[in-house]
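Table S4 entry, Flavin reductase family protein.
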Amino acid sequence: MTENSTHLSLAPTTDGSSLRQAYSAFPSGVVAVCRRLDGEPVGMAASAFSTVSLDPPLVSLCVQNTSTTWPRLRGTGSIGVSVFSSEQAVLCRQLAGPADKRFDGITPLHAGDEAIFIPGAAASLSCSLYNEIPAGDHTIVLLRIDALHADPGVEPLVFHASTFRLLEARNVGADGD
């Protein structure tokens, strides 16, 4: 019996461009993380977002340790997380841009506390800080969901291979087709 295999060439993890390319192979949802601070909206876009737990209800995001926005958002009180809709790619890029221009032309929604939300989002989560875990050049932020609104009819924005994508629904039969 002979073994049939082909050679796979792997790059070392010290190769930053190869590492970024590998990370970009995994699609993720994109969210806005926002709150009102001293009467002004403060927020940022985050693409390293994931659901974590149903009990307690937790989500996570990863924030660069060099972020100047996260320290302003992380205090006590509510933080709004808005899951961008497929039509909000330009808005997402705006919230990832210069801090003083992030809310230009945006009238955020609110639910009566510090949390603010992006209008038209696929889901809005009012959260509180649950935990922060140092992880290399990032911090893993765990947020507890305190209240939410979701519209499953709104297609989410997906970030994959350094660009925004749309989801495609597929029916897969028993034979894998």
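Helices lie at 16-24, 70-73, 89-95.
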